[in-house]
User: Which sequence fits this backbone?
């Protein structure tokens, strides 16, 4: 039965492949831009067993009954395009994995990508890289360099939040800092792996 408290909007297969990628590539710090309910970031912290976990959203997750500070997660409440966010982000220094999942407009994704591209990181990931038209277009046309994408391959597989009405492909696209070598030796069961 579905847990009514789980609000992670992701195909299990895509999330599993993404987590396996992070483990294989020794991700020790994680930043999620656009945490919404906060459940995905808490899940990632617990599964990856890492201490350097940070999130950003325009609204506090407490509106969903979850306070990220209770989980030891650093949180910036505000716009990721603000001067205050940039100052906060600079203070975090190098982040191994930055997941961009905030403003899903092309303009919003571009702003988050360009800013994070200039800050120290190993990997930049995009949620909905195959699911939302503006994100998909940006991922395919503007994100350069080495990149891979995890896309659910089975229409019958489980969506973490099954009562979510739009059971479409979400996709998680990952690109990396040019100086980083990608380890592709990990399980991608249930997804297709596109190396663009």
Assistant:
């Amino acid at each position: 039965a579905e847990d009514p408290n789980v609000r992670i909007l992701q195909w299990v297969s895509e999330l599993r492949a993404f987590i396996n990628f992070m483990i294989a590539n020794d991700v020790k710090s994680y930043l999620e831009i656009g945490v919404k309910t906060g459940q995905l970031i808490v899940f990632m912290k617990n599964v990856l067993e890492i201490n350097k976990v940070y999130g950003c959203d325009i609204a506090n997750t407490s509106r969903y009954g979850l306070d990220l500070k209770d989980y030891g997660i650093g949180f910036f409440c505000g716009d990721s395009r603000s001067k205050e966010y940039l100052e906060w982000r600079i203070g975090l220094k190098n982040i191994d994995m930055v997941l961009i999942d905030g403003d899903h407009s092309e303009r919003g994704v571009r702003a988050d990508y360009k800013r994070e591209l200039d800050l120290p990181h190993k990997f930049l990931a995009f949620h909905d890289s195959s699911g939302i038209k503006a994100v998909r277009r940006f991922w395919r046309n503007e994100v350069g360099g080495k990149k891979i994408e995890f896309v659910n391959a089975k229409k019958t597989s489980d969506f973490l939040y099954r009562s979510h009405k739009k059971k479409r492909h979400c996709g998680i696209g990952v690109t990396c800092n040019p100086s980083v070598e990608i380890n592709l030796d990990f399980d991608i069961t249930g997804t297709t792996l596109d190396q663009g």
